[in-house]
Amino acid sequence: MILRHLQLTNFRKYRSARIEFPAGLVGIVGPNGAGKSTLFEAFAWVLFGNGMSRTGGFGLATTGSRPREPCEVEAEFEHAGEVYRIVRRLTGRGISSWAKVHRGKTLAATGPIATSRFVRQLLGADARTFLRIVYCRQGEVRGLSGDFPTRRREVIAEVADLGLLDRVLRQVREDSARFPPGPTESKNIPDDLEERLCEARLRIRSLRREEAEERGRVESKEPTLRKLQEILAEVALLSRHRAALQPILDRGEEDFGESLEGVMRRWLENRGRASALSARVAELRRMKVGVRGTSCPLCGGPIQREELLGRLSREGDECGEELRRLAREERELSELRKGAERMRDRRKAQREWDGLESRRLTLEKRAAEMKGVEGEIRLARDRCQDVQRQIQEWVGKESAMRTALDWARKRSANRRGKLLHRLAELLEEFRDALLERARIALGDPASDLLELATQGRYTDLQLDRDFRARMADGGRPFVLERFSGGERDVAGVALRVGLSRLLSFRHPAEFLILDEVLAGQDRSRRRILLAALFRLCPPLKQILLITHMEEIEDSIPAVIRIGEDENGFAQVLAPSGCDR
Question: Structural domains in the chain?
Fold first, then answer.
């Protein structure tokens, strides 16, 4: 492949630029951030689409461009003797994309997907592989030519795209570490254990719902049961009250002729009359004492004493007889009063009995109506106890099945951990085998390139099993640390270009982009490396050397200088392809 020109319109820092690329060694020189690497991003984007941009296709348009201004890149390159021209465009802030590719003057494909597919088939590589073949990142050459074999091994693994395998290997190791050792003995575990465990849990859940329903029935009936118990307690109390009234009622009805009020009225009248008679008897006694004199105790006149005493005695006797009669009558009235009181008590007791009996009958009727509740509650409680017993049985079964399943899972995890550990071993062996094949296969192309770059001064470059580089000098291999810095840089470039050739299956790598491979080198090492790159141009038809070091311009046959205008946009400061 030879890149002939790039034309950028509103692509990142480039408002508008057309850059011609001659064959051979071409320097792309400019300060950091000027837009040198953007040229390669534009070339990769026009070939493969949004996947090759740093932002996935977003933000490619130049800052400040209008929404309707297209972001467009056109690239023309030569491959396998034919010229191809590809145009890719984004419009509407990257929402709409369009692309087409011409082979010579013939339209070969149109549309972004079809264009990317055509390029993959043409180059025989996808976007990632193409990037690893043609693009040498900063630090790769130094890693290949440095003093640390482990770093050289890492660079080869990265360029060979073993990073995915490394990530898989790391993930497998992490997964393997998450499975601790488990039981190894064998047990007869049913194949449908998980299904049985699921059924047991569903059965337990169903039984617990049934238990909750039975408990709800009991709780809904308990207020009625408590009311029934209160009614029965009240009925028992009424029965005791009736038993206490029974002796009074057993006395039977008596006819006392008059009421208790009449008896009490006569009794009070007799008591008043008796009190009056008693007072009269006392007065008569005083009068009899006074009769002993000659004058009347009443009027003070003379009286016949014997006659008066006789009259007082007769009156006293009458009063005494009357008092005795009243005493007898009082006793009779007292008996009548007691009988009347008993009659009153009986009638009161009868009324109370009748009230208690009515209340008892009412309560017994209500109790009879609620009598079924007690049976319902008893039945619900029995069912609840039966459900609880079943729950306990199923919980025991579920626990046993869960224990067995945990054991089976631990055993399975142990087996899985062993399998993952074995898989990690196999992946590591596979990775080492790939690196070993790459190490062995890299020797021939790297040696050929080294011989070409050094004009036959060094003809053999090999990597040993530890990835320590050995370069032959005078027919004897020496470790790379023996040679000068410039010679080691040339060996690093030979190894990196050799890797590109190994990765290009269908067509040998003829196009290479070196990004800042001269950084950190002194003038002597830069001169040696530039001379080696110049000698590699026959097999590599085009080498684009990206650098910020302007002092190399006199050492390179063609230089493209990139800078910024007064608005901060990237621009070409010198004619492309100018001879130096």
Answer: 2-144+488-579 (3.40.50.300), 193-428 (no CATH)
pTM more than 0.90 = no
Axis crossing angle, helix 305-453 with helix 485-503, rounded to the nearest 10? 100
Exposure string for 517-554, b = 16+ CB within 10 A, e = fewer: bbeebeeebbebbbbbbbbbbeebbbbbbbbbeeebbe
* pLDDT per residue as tens digits for the range 10-61: 898 898 999 999 999 999 998 888 888 889 989 999 999 887 776 666 678 8
Residue 240 CB-density burial (10 A; 0-12 exposed, 13-18 middle, 19+ buried): exposed
Q: Which two structure tokens, joined as six digits, stand for 296?
A: 């009347």
CA 121/CA 105 separation, integer angstroms: 19
At 504, list the tokens. 């290009």
Query: What phi and psi, each to the nearest 5 degrees, are found at residue 261?
Result: -70, -40
CB 26 within 8 A of CB 513: no
Question: Nearest Cα to 218, choosing from 387, 370, 383, 366?
Answer: 383
Between CA 231 and CA 240, with CA 234 as vertex, the angle to 5 degrees is 145
Amino acid at 539: P
Please report the sign of the dihedral spanned by the C-alpha atoms of residue 506, residue 512, residue 515, residue 517.
positive
Please give the helix or strand (H or E) that residue 426 lies within, else none. Answer: helix 305-453
Beta bridge partners of 477: 472
Strands in 96-103's sheet, in edge-to-edge order, are 14-20, 2-11, 71-79, 82-91, 96-103, 106-110
> CA–CA separation, 413 vs 366, rounded Å?
68
